[in-house]
RNA sequence: GCUAAGGUGGCAGAGUCCGGCCGAACGCGGCGGCCUGCAGAGCCGCAUAUCGCCGGUUCAAAUCCGGCCCUUAGCUCCA
């Protein structure tokens, strides 16, 4: 059973074969740091994270590069806003820090490198020079454009034909271009005041900043949007990479242009597999910064926590669009609870028996096998996380049944089940089960246990009203109480 | 207009590439039972699907082919 993925460029599912046997070169199209990240961004990160984790699980070493676009007119437009700093760099640093904090909060595996555009200007310039030397780009009024007619396969990713495309770029740069679809590799001068005003979220007055500029063979200027990814990808991963991941809204023009400029420059295939994640929608339209209908990652983290957010994302395949709603989050929370409760029940049962226990529970044993087989098949089938999650959840029923039966436990089967859940839920899906050894958690556990002891005394004395009051009080601060034959148990929030 | 993805039960969402195991997964919600002092959790079970519409191919179609309708996205910055 090997991995197959749906490649946007062919539109078909293809067997995955990396350039080298051992390593997977993964590039994730990162964020423009002009605002706080929202749940749409985190969806891409999370799916890319699970892909990364699965590739490692099946034995590859993953070199994961995820860029930050820290040079952009929208960033420059926000300079001077309270708390963001006076320069484009300061604004970019502010939001980069907040995005990294979000990523930490979501328990994403760290990328190998997080390259910034501002740190790759020399590489960008030399790539542009290479394109000019090869006859694929031309200078015009201090700006440099890519000539789309020099790359015969232009449009192969998005299936667009040049004659059907409208002009790319700002109206004022069209007169400088040879063809309407040519796109800027380098833009002369700073950010235009019009662009600043268009993206500004506050009034800059007369003191309009113009963003950073760099010296180049064509004069002072700034890199175009698309060239950065090509330059950073090549710098850190080489001319041909295995997987390029990004949101579906980037297929055209961004990824199309990346392919054109990269392959025109090197003559080599830029990325072997293009994987695009479906967009997150709310109320029938996509969540986006420009529409202002977004829910930021940090808000979501404080309201739901990382596990519930993951549970939400993993209820749909990466390639499908997904709708955000309060109901969807509630269901995601319930699904996560189901998984974590079963895990905790299983662990508690396992801790209560010894390895010498011989009772055999064939149904649990076969459930473990089925889960392993089905989970693996699902993940290898284009990272079908919904199917994989279904396999994992079906194991929760088996574990709960086994624990509920109360009879002698099957130590080996239970241990296998717990390890299977840990491997898939934590290592592959990136969930984090609560561990009682955490300092605060440990103290809270002790306190909750103390209260429950008092409640048990009240119950034994028949003071049910008093006992229920104590239970309600615990519930109100998020501690769930559950009575069972073996006495009360509780779960911390 | 051009391009791409999608339309499956109350909700959400697999299955469609490789037609039969799909009398349609997993889950949420609903209903009933077990357990419980009660509740929750858990377990067991039940109900709800003309698989967008029309036609075709086939012994057999949610799955293949053709036409149509609708939704979302891209063609301007966007994950």
TrEMBL record:
<dbReference type="GO" id="GO:0008270">
    <property type="term" value="F:zinc ion binding"/>
</dbReference>
<dbReference type="InterPro" id="IPR024909">
    <property type="entry name" value="Cys-tRNA/MSH_ligase"/>
</dbReference>
<keyword id="KW-0648">Protein biosynthesis</keyword>
<feature type="short sequence motif" description="'HIGH' region">
    <location>
        <begin position="31"/>
        <end position="41"/>
    </location>
</feature>
<feature type="binding site">
    <location>
        <position position="258"/>
    </location>
    <ligand>
        <name>Zn(2+)</name>
    </ligand>
</feature>
<feature type="binding site">
    <location>
        <position position="289"/>
    </location>
    <ligand>
        <name>ATP</name>
    </ligand>
</feature>
<dbReference type="InterPro" id="IPR014729">
    <property type="entry name" value="Rossmann-like_a/b/a_fold"/>
</dbReference>
<keyword id="KW-0030">Aminoacyl-tRNA synthetase</keyword>
<dbReference type="GO" id="GO:0005524">
    <property type="term" value="F:ATP binding"/>
</dbReference>
<dbReference type="InterPro" id="IPR015803">
    <property type="entry name" value="Cys-tRNA-ligase"/>
</dbReference>
<dbReference type="Pfam" id="PF09190">
    <property type="entry name" value="DALR_2"/>
</dbReference>
<keyword id="KW-0436">Ligase</keyword>
<feature type="binding site">
    <location>
        <position position="29"/>
    </location>
    <ligand>
        <name>Zn(2+)</name>
    </ligand>
</feature>
<dbReference type="GO" id="GO:0006423">
    <property type="term" value="P:cysteinyl-tRNA aminoacylation"/>
</dbReference>
<dbReference type="GO" id="GO:0004817">
    <property type="term" value="F:cysteine-tRNA ligase activity"/>
</dbReference>
<keyword id="KW-0067">ATP-binding</keyword>
<feature type="binding site">
    <location>
        <position position="254"/>
    </location>
    <ligand>
        <name>Zn(2+)</name>
    </ligand>
</feature>
<dbReference type="InterPro" id="IPR009080">
    <property type="entry name" value="tRNAsynth_Ia_anticodon-bd"/>
</dbReference>
<keyword id="KW-0963">Cytoplasm</keyword>
<keyword id="KW-0479">Metal-binding</keyword>
<protein>
    <recommendedName>
        <fullName>Cysteine--tRNA ligase</fullName>
        <ecNumber>6.1.1.16</ecNumber>
    </recommendedName>
</protein>
<comment type="similarity">
    <text>Belongs to the class-I aminoacyl-tRNA synthetase family.</text>
</comment>
<dbReference type="InterPro" id="IPR032678">
    <property type="entry name" value="tRNA-synt_1_cat_dom"/>
</dbReference>
<dbReference type="GO" id="GO:0005737">
    <property type="term" value="C:cytoplasm"/>
</dbReference>
<feature type="short sequence motif" description="'KMSKS' region">
    <location>
        <begin position="286"/>
        <end position="290"/>
    </location>
</feature>
<dbReference type="InterPro" id="IPR015273">
    <property type="entry name" value="Cys-tRNA-synt_Ia_DALR"/>
</dbReference>
<keyword id="KW-0862">Zinc</keyword>
<feature type="domain" description="Cysteinyl-tRNA synthetase class Ia DALR">
    <location>
        <begin position="374"/>
        <end position="443"/>
    </location>
</feature>
<dbReference type="Pfam" id="PF01406">
    <property type="entry name" value="tRNA-synt_1e"/>
</dbReference>
<feature type="binding site">
    <location>
        <position position="229"/>
    </location>
    <ligand>
        <name>Zn(2+)</name>
    </ligand>
</feature>
<keyword id="KW-0547">Nucleotide-binding</keyword>
């Amino acid at each position: 059973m090997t991995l197959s993925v749906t490649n946007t460029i062919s539109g078909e599912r293809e067997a995955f074969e990396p350039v080298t046997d051992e390593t997977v070169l993964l590039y994730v199209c990162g964020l423009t740091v002009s605002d706080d990240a929202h749940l749409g961004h985190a969806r891409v990160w999370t799916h890319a994270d699970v892909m990364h984790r699965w590739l490692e699980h099946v034995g590859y070493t993953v070199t994961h590069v995820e860029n930050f676009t820290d040079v952009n007119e929208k960033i420059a437009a926000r300079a001077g806003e309270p708390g963001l700093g006076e320069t484009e760099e300061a604004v970019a640093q502010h939001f980069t820090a907040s995005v990294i904090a979000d990523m930490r909060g979501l328990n994403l595996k760290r990328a190998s490198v997080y390259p910034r555009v501002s740190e790759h200007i020399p590489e960008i310039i030399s790539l542009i020079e290479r394109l000019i030397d090869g006859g694929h780009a031309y200078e015009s009024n201090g700006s440099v454009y890519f000539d789309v007619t020099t790359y015969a396969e232009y449009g192969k990713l998005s299936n667009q034909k040049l004659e059907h495309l409208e002009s790319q770029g700002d109206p004022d740069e069209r007169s400088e271009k040879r063809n309407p679809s040519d796109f800027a590799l380098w833009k002369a001068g700073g950010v235009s005041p019009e662009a600043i005003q268009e993206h500004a979220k506050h009034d800059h007055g007369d003191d309009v900043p113009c963003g950073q500029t760099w010296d180049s063979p064509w004069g002072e200027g700034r890199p175009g949007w698309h060239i950065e990814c090509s330059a950073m990808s090549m710098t850190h991963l080489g001319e041909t990479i295995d997987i390029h991941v990004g949101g579906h809204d980037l297929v055209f023009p961004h990824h199309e242009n990346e392919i054109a400029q990269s392959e025109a420059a090197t003559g080599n295939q830029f990325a072997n597999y293009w994987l695009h994640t479906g967009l997150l929608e709310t109320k029938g339209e996509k969540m986006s910064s420009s529409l202002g209908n977004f829910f930021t990652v940090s808000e979501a983290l404080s309201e739901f926590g990382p596990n519930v957010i993951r549970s939400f994302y993993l209820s749909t395949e990466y390639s499908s669009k997904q709708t955000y709603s309060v109901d969807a989050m509630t269901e995601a929370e319930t699904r996560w609870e189901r998984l974590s409760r079963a895990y905790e029940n299983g662990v508690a049962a396992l801790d209560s028996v010894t390895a010498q226990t011989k009772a055999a529970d064939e149904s649990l044993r076969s459930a473990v096998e089925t889960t392993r087989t089905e989970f693996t098949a699902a993940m290898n089938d284009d990272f079908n996380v919904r199917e994989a999650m279904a396999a994992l959840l079906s194991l929760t029923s088996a574990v709960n049944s086994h624990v509920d039966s109360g009879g002698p436990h099957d130590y080996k089967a239970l241990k296998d089940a717990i390890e299977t859940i840990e491997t898939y839920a934590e290592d592959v899906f990136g969930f984090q089960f609560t561990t009682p050894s955490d300092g605060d958690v440990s103290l809270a556990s002790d306190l909750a246990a103390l209260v429950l002891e008092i409640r048990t005394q009240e119950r034994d004395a028949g003071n049910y009203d008093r006992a229920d009051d104590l239970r309600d009080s615990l519930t109100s601060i998020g501690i769930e109480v559950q009575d069972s034959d073996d006495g009360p148990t509780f779960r911390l929030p």
